[in-house]
Amino acid sequence: MPGRLPAGLSRRKYAALLVLLLVVLAIETFNGAERLRSDALRAVLTIAIWIIVFERPRERAITAAVLFTSLLISAGRYFAVAGLDHPLSLAEQVLMTLFLCSAVWVILRDLFRTPAVGAENVFGAICGYLIAGHGWAHANALAYLLMPSSYSINPELAALLPDWHGRLAIFTYYAFAQVMTIGYSDVTPVRAPATTLSLFAALFGVFYTAVVVSQFVGLAQKSKRESPARE
User: Fold this and answer.
1) Is-contact 21 28, C-beta < 8 A?
2) Which of 23, 49, 97, 174 has the greatest number of beta carbons closer than 10 A?
3) Around 194, how many Cα atoms within 13 Å sit in the side-chain half-sphere?
4) What is the pTM of this model?
């Protein structure tokens, strides 16, 4: 099947994806990065997520269409007239939110179907958490585009908002603060939909950690119970 990983890399696919996620996260929250390079690296990340996470043919076909359209819009924004920036931004944020949320759902689904816990499962769970953070970033960017007044943003950061790279940098930083319930005051939700997203992001972060840890504990205990029986 096109896009399938070699056997050697397949056994370490989530470890490789985790490294890429951390690199892109560092770049996205540092807006000084060169725009074209930042977009190219983000495209590499999303393609890697598609190759690694989605293995079923139907899922691969649907998410490939979503991802291709999103990447096409992202590239087209370099050539589009200024008046099209807002609708193109809206479309891109919707598509990326759907794509990243789908990736998290597939990672969790496969995690709960795994018969045993291992390092690659742990890396996969961490990848799911980081991908979710990126998904919340795009969801918040979408909410801002629809209703800018729902956020109160530090004036020093607000200067970055007109540029889509700056906007993504701000909301990536904010989304991870949401998910980890840190509560930095640089970006503050003041009314819906920002307040609603903030609530659900915090709930997601807490329950994701609790559910994944309980799953790993259950798998570890199951392995211990089965080990004496096999001996």
Assistant:
1) no
2) 174
3) 19
4) 0.85
Q: 116 near 85, Cβ under 8 Å?
A: no
Q: Please check the confidence at residue 6 and state whether its pLDDT lies above 70.
A: no
Per-residue pLDDT of 192-218, as tens digits, reads 999 999 999 999 988 888 888 777 777
**Among 101, 177, 103, CA closest to 139:** 101
* Cα–Cα distance for residue pair 218/107, rounded to 1 Å: 18
Rg (alpha carbons) of the chain, rounded to whole number: 19
What is the total residue count of the chain?
A: 231
Would you list the domain boundaries of the chain?
7-224
pLDDT digits (tens, 9 = 90+) for 57-95: 999 999 999 999 999 998 887 787 777 888 888 999 999
Of the chain, the end-to-end C-alpha distance in Å amounts to 39
